[in-house]
UniProtKB/TrEMBL annotation:
This is YycH family regulatory protein. Gene3D superfamilies: YycH protein, domain 2. CDD domains: YycH_N (cd15787). InterPro entries: YycH, YycH/YycI_2. Residues 3-417 form the Regulatory protein YycH domain. The lineage of its organism: Bacteria, Bacillati, Bacillota, Bacilli, Bacillales.
Length: 435
């Protein structure tokens, strides 16, 4: 009898030990495991805030067409931009009809009809737009990437049209069922009547009839250290070795991954070569994995927007553009700052580039300047383009490193059809009104 009790007790102890070992290794269902593969993302130092994809997708501008060839432009973070966008996000769009881009005279529609045009430069996949707006899934439309949403009132037909323009440039989709009335659109358009008017030029870009006042702040900044980035990007920083390059940059590697730090530019480039795969990468899944990678490896120092997503032979290239208040911060060869760049392959980051500088928040100082408009701006554009065609002009910040932080200098960013670009600077703002 005693031997049987001892045997039963021993069996219970062994079983308990096995159960305990199981939970120690695999934990509870849904809580993850202690074991991790070489490609899984490991939570590291909390260096910046985390964001969701919904925080990183928004129009780079909102163009208001008021009829009779009158227009204005709202930028992110302004009162009317936020108000109109929040209302449109609550509307429902469904039942899509595909049309050729040549089916209408869009410049004539812009000039003659009241409407709202949302620009998503770089394009956004419809499957991600569905997270922001009430877009009913459609098998054909869902495979598209959209760079413009245009809602306008047709005076002759007395109805509102909702159009989604494909980045391919040859097709547009109309939501034949949208809970938008003519009164809704006209109410939104009315917000533009008391703001700076813009002129549609060459059917491609908009110029304000008068100067636009802007802030030129100096933002307090910090600097990620090389040690921080090593801890963020290597599973065992202790086994990395350092290589000095002739150009002054440093490379840290664990024989597979490498981290290149350019101290003069305060810029880092991380690579994690992945084996070629016969499977085609899913662009949306790559993008979502890229957002999660940044969340866990440096975070976001302020507001960023998805500015570009393109397919590569082996994966997906993604670019996030930093914003300060209403304007994007330019990344220039002379001062690398303002972007986070990724190359994703099968949802794994193979390339990760960003500045080591980051905005702490809070302004050391700020002055008001005036971006030129009207004839003054036209003259400067004509002088610098020398006959080359302009495709876009928009306000942006040019970063400059100061002892107190990073100065953000407002400029007009001018893009050319040839692919080049240049900037037009501001002047001191008059002490009277706000322009």
């Amino acid at each position: 009898m005693k031997e049987r009790v001892k045997s039963m007790a021993l069996s219970v102890l062994v079983l308990g030990s096995l159960v305990q070992s199981y939970f120690l290794i695999y934990r509870l269902p849904g809580s993850g495991t202690i074991l991790s593969s070489e490609t899984s993302y490991v939570q590291t130092d909390n260096m910046g805030q985390e964001e969701s994809i919904e925080d990183l997708i928004f129009p780079d501008r909102m163009i208001i067409h008021m009829g009779e060839d009158k227009h204005t432009v709202f930028y992110p973070g302004t009162t009317f931009y936020d108000l109109i966008l929040s209302r449109l996000e609550g509307r429902t769009f469904e039942s899509y009809q595909r049309r050729s881009i040549q089916s209408s005279d869009w410049n004539a529609i812009r000039k003659e009809n009241k409407g709202i045009e949302l620009s998503f430069s770089g394009g956004v996949p419809v499957t991600l737009l569905e997270r922001l707006m009430r877009i009913t899934p459609d098998p054909v439309f869902r495979a598209e990437t959209i760079n413009r949403i245009w809602i306008y009132v047709d005076k002759q037909a007395s109805q509102a049209h909702a159009l989604f323009f494909s980045t391919r440039g040859d097709v547009v989709y109309e939501a034949t069922q949208a809970d938008l009335t003519i009164e809704d659109v006209e109410q939104h358009v009315a917000f533009g009547t008391s703001t700076t008017p813009y002129e549609l030029t060459d059917g491609a870009y908009y110029i304000p009839y008068e100067g636009v006042e802007a802030e030129q702040p100096v933002i307090l900044s910090g600097l990620f250290t090389t040690e921080q980035m090593q801890r963020n990007l290597f599973f065992d920083p202790g086994i990395t070795r350092n290589i000095q390059e002739k150009d002054g940059s440093e490379i840290y590697t664990d024989s597979k991954r490498s981290l290149q730090v350019r101290q003069e530019q305060r810029w880092m480039s991380y690579t994690d070569p992945a084996a070629p795969s016969s499977e085609e990468s899913d662009a949306v899944r790559d993008l979502l994995a890229g957002v999660e990678f940044v969340n866990q490896h440096g975070g976001w120092d302020g507001s960023y927007r998805l500015a570009m997503q393109s397919s590569l032979d082996y994966g997906t290239q993604v670019l996030f553009q930093q914003y300060y208040k209403s304007y994007p911060v330019m990344d220039k060869p002379s001062f690398r700052f303002g972007t986070i760049q990724l190359e994703m392959q099968q949802e794994t980051a193979s390339v990760y580039e960003r500045s080591l500088l980051y905005l702490k928040g809070g302004e050391h100082s700020s002055t008001k300047v005036m971006l030129p408009g009207g004839e003054k701006l036209k003259q400067q554009l004509a002088k610098q383009t020398e006959g080359r065609a302009i495709t876009d002009i928009s306000p942006a910040y040019l970063p400059k490193l100061k002892d107190q932080g990073i100065e953000l200098v407002p400029v007009w960013r001018v893009k050319l059809e040839s692919g080049g670009e240049f900037t037009v600077g501001a002047s001191s703002a008059p002490p009277s009104n706000g322009g």
